[in-house]
């Protein structure tokens, strides 16, 4: 269950008959220990996955296609390695199923077992494709700030608050400049990120410098978001904090981790233009 033993970076045969053993779970705890996430989680949330390459056969052998979204709770013990997820979904390509309910039941059972907790599955059939929406992350975009950047690995010490005379503030800030790299292969991962907080005002230039500092950092999406959450929590001490990143897709999958200490509903799982 170590990332180095996953299918990442390896030549993989594409199996086209249903095979749940292709899923490769990776425990969250080792990275959480490294990041400094306490055993009592300081956040809740989910990892939102969207699959754009899902197909199977009906009982008469005719191909069917759909979109699917998966909500994996942040308190499940495992993440699912993304290439193994892709290989698993492709194992349905030549698999005959009685209908979409049979597909959903298999997906939910297999993914819940791999994650170690209940995974919610939503299937969108072609007749509903036209109702799918796109939207950019809400908030003030800080990307036009004129800053100097010379750090490209995470530097939490860059973060700082400032005295505004207004006391506690609440705001939502957005950047499209988050980039990190795959933990195993080093392939680039691109994302937009939304930071919502209540507390002393965070100096926006320092936040942008900090987010850009992930540019040469190797870590999975879920781990990057938890690192951002913990670094802002330690350095800026907000009363409440949310971090939501929407990563561009690879292999027909995108991953969008959300972590929050607010009491709030999960955000709408709407893809951005880059996704």
UniProtKB/TrEMBL annotation:
Alphabetical UniProt keywords: Cytoplasm, NADP, Oxidoreductase, Queuosine biosynthesis
InterPro entries from the UniProt entry: GTP-CH-I_C/QueF (IPR043133), NADPH_dep_7-cyano-7-deazaG_red (IPR050084), QueF (IPR029500), QueF_N (IPR029139), QueF_type2 (IPR016428)
Gene3D superfamilies registered for this protein in UniProt = 3.30.1130.10
Q: Which residues bind NADPH?
A: 82-83, 250-251
Q: Where is the NADPH-dependent 7-cyano-7-deazaguanine reductase N-terminal domain?
A: 14-123
Compartments, record wording: Cytoplasm
Family to which the UniProt record says this protein belongs: Belongs to the GTP cyclohydrolase I family. QueF type 2 subfamily.
Can you say what this protein is called? NADPH-dependent 7-cyano-7-deazaguanine reductase
């Amino acid at each position: 269950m170590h990332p180095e033993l996953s299918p990442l970076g390896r030549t993989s045969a594409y199996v086209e008959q249903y095979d749940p053993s292709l899923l490769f779970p990776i425990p969250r705890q080792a990275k959480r220990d490294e990041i400094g996430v306490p055993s009592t989680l300081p956040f809740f949330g989910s990892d939102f996955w969207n699959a754009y390459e899902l197909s199977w056969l009906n009982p008469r052998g005719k191909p069917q296609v759909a979109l699917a979204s998966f909500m994996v709770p942040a308190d499940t013990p495992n993440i699912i390695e993304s290439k193994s997820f892709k290989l698993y979904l492709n194992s349905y390509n030549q698999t005959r199923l009685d209908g979409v309910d049979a597909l959903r039941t298999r997906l939910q059972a297999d993914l819940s077992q791999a994650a170690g907790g209940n995974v919610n599955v939503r299937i969108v059939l072609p007749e509903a494709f036209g109702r799918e929406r796109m939207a950019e992350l809400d908030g003030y975009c800080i990307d036009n700030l004129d800053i100097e950047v010379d750090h490209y690995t995470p530097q939490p010490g860059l973060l700082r608050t400032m005295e505004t005379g207004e006391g506690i503030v609440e705001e939502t800030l957005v950047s499209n400049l988050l980039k990190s790299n795959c933990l195993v292969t080093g392939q680039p991962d691109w994302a937009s990120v939304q930071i919502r907080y209540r507390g002393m005002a965070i100096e926006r230039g320092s936040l942008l410098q900090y987010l850009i500092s992930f540019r040469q950092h190797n870590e999975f999406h879920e781990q990057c978001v938890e690192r951002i959450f913990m670094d802002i929590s330690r350095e800026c001490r907000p009363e409440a904090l949310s971090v939501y990143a929407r990563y561009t897709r690879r292999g027909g999958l995108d991953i969008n981790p959300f972590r929050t200490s607010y009491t709030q509903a999960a955000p709408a799982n709407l893809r951005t233009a880059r996704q």
